[in-house]
Write a structure and sequence with these properties.
The complex is a heterodimer of chains A (576) and B (459).
Chain A: E1 2-9, E2 12-16, E3 24-28, E4 33-41, E5 44-49, E6 61-68, E7 70-73, E8 81-82, H1 89-96, E9 114-119, E10 126-127, E11 132-137, E12 143-147, E13 154-159, E14 162-165, E15 169-173, E16 178-180, E17 183-186, E18 195-197, H2 208-213, E19 221-225, H3 232-242, E20 247-253, H4 257-266, E21 283-288, H5 294-313, E22 317-323, H6 325-338, H7 352-361, E23 364-367, E24 373-382, H8 392-398, E25 403-404, H9 409-413, E26 426-427, H10 430-440, H11 445-469, H12 476-493, H13 507-529, H14 534-538, H15 541-546, H16 555-573
Chain B: E1 4-5, E2 8-12, E3 15-19, E4 29-33, E5 39-48, E6 51-56, E7 68-71, E8 77-80, E9 87-90, E10 106-109, E11 126-127, H1 132-135, E12 140-141, E13 148-150, H2 156-166, E14 176-185, H3 187-199, E15 206-212, H4 223-238, E16 241-247, H5 249-262, H6 276-284, E17 288-289, E18 296-299, E19 302-304, H7 313-321, E20 324-328, H8 330-334, E21 341-348, H9 351-354, H10 364-388, H11 395-412, H12 422-433, H13 446-452, H14 454-457
Parallel strand pairs in B: 9-15, 13-19, 13-20, 14-15, 14-16, 16-18
Antiparallel strand pairs in B: 1-7, 2-3, 3-6, 4-5, 4-7, 5-6, 8-10, 11-12, 17-18, 20-21
Helix pairs in contact in B: 6-7, 10-11, 10-12, 11-12
Classes of the chains: A alpha+beta (576), B alpha/beta (459).
Bound molecules: adenosine-5'-diphosphate (ADP) and magnesium ion.
Residues 232-233, 255 of chain A line the site of magnesium ion.
């Protein structure tokens, strides 16, 4: 059926003459720009267009594809970089050069590339949605499981082996259904799972303040709100680099082009600490930067999470970073205001909170349809205007997520990185994961950590007094608390993402660092009680040297040397 | 498409509505012929089978229902040529210097297409501005967008000019150009820039677009787009390294707000349009370096923060898009320090890729981090001293307090024509760090202390 354009106002186009369904994808104008139906009213429908609409005129033709906005799922997703509607940016560059022109379509998955398909099911097997029927080695370490699409079941009448393109038939069911290695899935609809389970394992990130104080569970949700320059993007990238996850989906949603170029540049060079393979081999990038069309920005988050769900369905642990969910919310606001909808708080549409919770709800630790365990951990950056956390996107997000990493501009200004505020941040997983830490890190890990948190809390209270009377007026034991907290902050919490060694800190090292600081604390307290002057305790060389062990290539030796020296120095102080 | 319509039904602020036209394209350029023989230009904002809304750049003064409207069938284009260098043009691209019209080598859509992120080359080439607070602690690199956040009455223009004069990539002799776009600044301010350009001979390498305070506000919405189009053309077609100075972003945003109000849009925070982030991004993101091309576009724009408030929507949204900001401080200015740049809220996000061994010097990052930490602490202690007196401070804290003063006096302060090399800057840094007890230098690896600390170096 053919229709025509009635009205064009920015990314929102009104059409008439066809009767589409909600969320149908339509081709708009002579150039066939891609758009999605977002409102139907009488004989007219409103379409959000994923490309620039300059020069488009009323009266130009509109064609309904009858399909919802969908992504292509199959081998070849990894190592790709897509725009918000899954057009590979590399293909766009080949087709139209360094600047993105409109009206160019590109398949999400290459139709030329040939993959070796190894069947794991055989003729006569009865299969249902989510069952694995074969394998493809997608990258060196990731085995791509070819699954029966969720809505299909039957008995295999034929299954092939060998080299195929993604759209070639590799399996036929007795009911006549033909399967290829590629399936399509509408992005706004969550892919089904067997059962949601309780997250019970930490996502290990190699970032001390995250793993140590505010851990997120695999399958959990976390938000990083913070004003500009406080470290949202660096933290997200650190997570993408170092998390012990199988697959990473990184969505640059309405942010900087250079940041995506940076990831593209760096990830092929960096090694996954778990497998030693280039990080890019486990990564899918979605880049719909701030200057790319706003409707495609709105879609980018759905495109990303659908790809994440697909790998989760294979039984993988997936982490998804969305930088920034605020830009996504703003895209909703922009479209909503063009539709002249009733605005809610600060102009955001009334459905903002519903959209946010639907999105985070797609995270989780699950039993897949096939019965495997898989997970999606979702970590969303939030960019509150003026750094004010009381605004709608931050507030609505905090109502949903379980971990809150609060970035603090004050800390960033003094180059305390990651500038996550240890007093206001929280993780609701801390208790639940304690057992895991006790077993897998060290039996005294939880005690060490709780003590450190206690001290930091005390420090905040003492600082208030210091502001009034100066630190010299404090009793000596309290001065010592301040010093130990300074060590906790500088030696443990601060972590330089750009230092070749410090950027990633294995759990064992985190434990030993914290233990060493705690050891100084104990010995210093004992010395003080034994009457050693505070000044001497504070001027130990080993204490200052401890500051730098985290940067040492050979951490263990450096630490041992410092600890031996510390013993010696305390012994020399005498007292006892 | 040369048909003239006399079907205007409504004129409201900068907007004109008309009906019964042939189909008109969204964003199409429009010329309007006034009864007195003058013409104005505008752009289609909304188009349907029944009605067209046009935003008029030169304002709607003098327009009436007798005026004729012609749709040109194309979006706004800028005629570009290498001969633009040395020229002074109006905010909408017409020659102002009495020179001939530009003979175009090409005509380019001023809205620009978005650069494919895959085509971008991460910027990493160090630009030496000769100003320590930038080179040392907030390093600028080619292809970066790094605005100055300032306040009214502060010397941001001087700083911008000093940078325009001194900026160089050490050891490189490549072709460079400056594109300067004034948006709503006073003619006096514009004059200040022009004179400096002329005096230093920079004008020959510059393209100037002037939209002054008494020019129509609507025109301000296209001026920066014209400037960036010229910059991209010189960078990507003529392999030049282009430094773009847009001033003042705040005036641009005010024009945006005014237009939003005229269109009766639902306003966002403090009355600015909800799409201001996206709109500003369409300017700022037009900086960068493209793989396989020689030229680059670097943006160094000026933004005066209303009420010196960095959380105001204009600096706030800008800071979310740009790759850092250089913050000019009233407090330092009052103290008589030039350039009064407060490094604490300043940031260059691309610094890490532009510095280090082989680019600036191996100790650069550590030195910068250490100075930040000590200066931040020193400033906090100033507050404390005001309450409890200097005597209540520990010896350590007193040293840090003194460091803050040294930092402002020796590192921040410099002459208006003082062009420090990066070596100079790092040496000044070490000379003041050396005043701190060595045990406090926790951010600096021992090997750099051995190599550069004045107490060790000479040995
Ligand atoms: N963990 C870190 N280690 C070192 N530097 C950091 C770290 N986190 C942030 N930074 C610094 O802060 C700057 C801003 O961080 P970024 O993540 O881009 O902020 P945001 O995304 O919140 O605007 C970075 O360019 C970097 O210089
Ligand atoms: Mg960011």
């Amino acid at each position: 059926m053919k229709g025509e354009i009635y009205r064009v106002a920015g990314p929102v186009v009104t059409i008439r003459g066809i009767k589409p369904k909600m969320y149908d994808v339509v081709q708009v104008g002579h150039e066939g720009l891609m758009g999605e139906v977002i409102r139907i009213e009488g004989d007219k429908a409103t379409v959000q267009v994923y490309e620039d609409t300059a020069g488009i005129k009323p009266g130009e033709p509109v064609v309904n594809t009858g399909m919802s906005l969908s992504v292509e799922l199959g081998p070849g997703l990894l190592e790709s970089i897509y725009d918000g509607i899954q057009r590979p940016l590399m293909v766009l560059q080949e087709k139209m050069g360094d600047f993105i022109q409109r009206g160019v379509t590109a398949n999400g998955l290459s139709r030329e590339k040939v993959w070796e398909f190894r069947p794991t099911a055989k003729k006569g097997d009865s299969v249902k949605g989510g069952d694995v029927i074969g394998l493809v080695q997608e990258t060196e370490n990731i085995e791509h499981k070819i699954m029966v699409p969720p809505t299909i079941s039957g008995t295999i009448s034929e299954i092939k082996a060998g080299k195929f393109k993604v759209d070639e038939i590799i399996c036929v069911l007795e009911n006549g259904t033909q399967l290829s290695m590629m399936q399509k899935w509408p992005v706004r609809k969550p892919r089904p799972v067997g059962k949601k389970l309780m997250p019970n394992k930490p996502l290990i990130t190699g970032q001390r303040i995250l793993d140590g104080l505010f851990p997120v569970a695999k399958g959990g949700t976390a938000a990083i709100p913070g004003p500009f320059g406080s470290g949202k993007t660096v933290t997200q990238q650190q997570l993408a680099k170092w998390s012990d996850t199988d697959i990473v989906v990184y969505i640059g949603c309405g942010e900087r082009g250079n940041e995506m170029a940076d990831v593209l540049n760096e990830f092929p060079e960096l090694q996954d600490p778990k497998t030693g393979r280039p990080l890019m081999e486990r990564t899918v990038l979605i880049a719909n930067t701030s200057n790319m069309p706003v409707a495609a920005r709105e879609a980018s988050v759905y495109t990303g999470i659908t790809i994440a769900e697909y790998y989760r369905d294979m039984g993988y642990d997936v982490s998804l970073m969305a930088d920034s969910t605020s830009r996504w919310a703003e895209a909703m606001r922009e479209i909503s205001s063009r539709l002249e909808e009733m605005p809610g708080e600060e102009g955001y549409p009334a459905y903002l909170s519903a959209r946010l919770s639907e999105f985070y709800e797609r995270a989780g630790y699950v039993r897949t349809l096939e019965g495997q365990e898989g997970s999606i951990t979702v970590i969303g950056a939030v960019s509150p205007p003026g750094g004010d956390f009381s605004e709608p996107v931050t507030q609505n997000t905090l109502r949903i997520v379980k971990v809150f990493w609060a970035l603090d501009a004050k800390l960033a200004q003094r180059r305390h990185f990651p500038s996550i505020n240890w007093l206001t941040s929280y993780s609701l997983y801390t208790q639940g994961l304690s057992g895991w830490f006790g077993e897998n890190v060290a039996p005294d890990w939880v005690t060490l950590r709780d003590n450190a948190m206690d001290l930091l809390q005390q420090e905040a209270e003492l600082q208030e007094i210091v502001q009034l009377v100066g630190s010299d007026a404090l009793p000596e034991d309290q001065q010592l608390v301040l010093e130990i907290c300074r060590m906790l902050r500088e030696y443990f919490l601060q972590q330089n993402a750009f230092h070749p060694v410090d950027t990633y800190c294995p759990f064992d090292k985190q434990y030993k660092l914290l233990k060493a600081i705690s050891k100084y604390g104990e010995m210093a307290t004992a010395a003080l009680e034994a009457g050693v002057p505070m000044k001497d305790i504070l001027s130990l060389e080993s204490k200052d040297e401890l500051a730098k062990v985290k940067f040492e290539e050979n951490f263990q030796d450096a630490l041992d040397a410092v600890l031996t020296k510390m013993d010696k120095e305390f012994a020399q102080l005498g007292g006892k | 498409m040369t048909k003239e319509y006399k079907t205007i039904t409504e004129i409201s602020g900068p907007l004109v509505f008309l009906e019964k036209t042939e189909p008109v394209g969204y964003n199409e350029l429009v010329t309007i012929n006034l009864p007195d023989g003058t013409t104005k230009r505008g752009q289609v904002l909304d188009t349907s089978a029944d009605m067209v809304a046009v935003q008029v750049f030169e304002g709607t003064g003098g327009l009436n229902e007798e005026s004729g409207v012609v749709f040109t069938g194309e979006t706004i284009k800028l005629p570009v040529s290498k001969d633009m260098l040395g020229r002074i043009l109006s905010g909408s691209g017409e020659p102002l210097d009495g020179g001939p019209r530009i003979i175009p080598e090409d005509r380019v859509d001023v809205n620009g297409a978005s650069m494919n992120p895959y085509s971008r080359m991460p910027p990493e080439e160090f630009i030496q501005t000769g100003i320590s607070t930038i080179d040392g602690t907030n390093t600028l690199v080619r292809g970066q967008k790094l605005p100055i956040f300032s306040g009214s009455g502060l010397p941001h223009n001087e700083i911008a000019l000093q940078i325009a004069r001194q900026a160089k990539v050490p050891g490189s002799t490549e072709d460079f150009a400056v594109v300067f776009a004034a948006m709503g600044i006073t003619s006096e301010e514009a004059q200040y820039f022009m004179e400096d350009f002329e005096k230093t001979g920079a004008l020959e390498r510059a393209v100037v677009f002037l939209n002054l305070a008494d020019d129509p506000a609507v025109e301000r919405l296209i001026t920066p787009r014209m400037a960036l189009t010229a910059a991209e053309y010189l960078a990507y077609e003529h392999d030049m390294h282009v430094l773009v100075i847009l001033t003042d972003i705040t005036n641009y945003c005010e024009a945006l707000r005014q237009m939003g109000a005229a269109r009766e849009e639902v306003p966002g925070r403090r009355g600015y349009p909800g799409y201001m982030y996206t709109d500003l991004a369409s300017l700022y993101e037009r900086a960068g370096v493209i793989k396989g091309r020689k030229g680059s576009v670097t943006q160094f724009s000026i933004l005066t923060m209303p009420g010196d408030d960095i959380t105001h929507p204009i600096p706030d949204l800008s800071g979310y898009i740009t790759e850092g900001q250089i913050v000019v401080s009233r407090e330092l200015h009052r103290k008589g320090i030039y350039p009064p740049i407060n490094v604490l809220p300043s940031l260059s996000r691309l610094m890490n890729s532009g510095i280090g061994a082989g680019k600036t010097r191996d100790d650069h990052k550590a030195v910068s981090d250490q100075m930040y930490a000590a200066y931040a602490e020193g400033r906090d202690l100033r507050g404390l001293v005001a309450i409890v007196g200097k005597e209540a401070l520990s010896e350590r804290d007193q040293k840090i307090l003194e460091f803050a003063d040294l930092f402002e006096d020796r590192f921040v302060r410099q002459g208006r024509d003082e062009d420090r090399t990066i070596e100079d800057t790092l040496n000044v840094s070490w000379s003041i760090l050396a005043e701190l007890p060595e045990a406090l230098l926790t951010r600096v690896d021992n090997k750099y202390i051995q190599k550069y600390h004045p107490a060790h170096k000479s040995k």
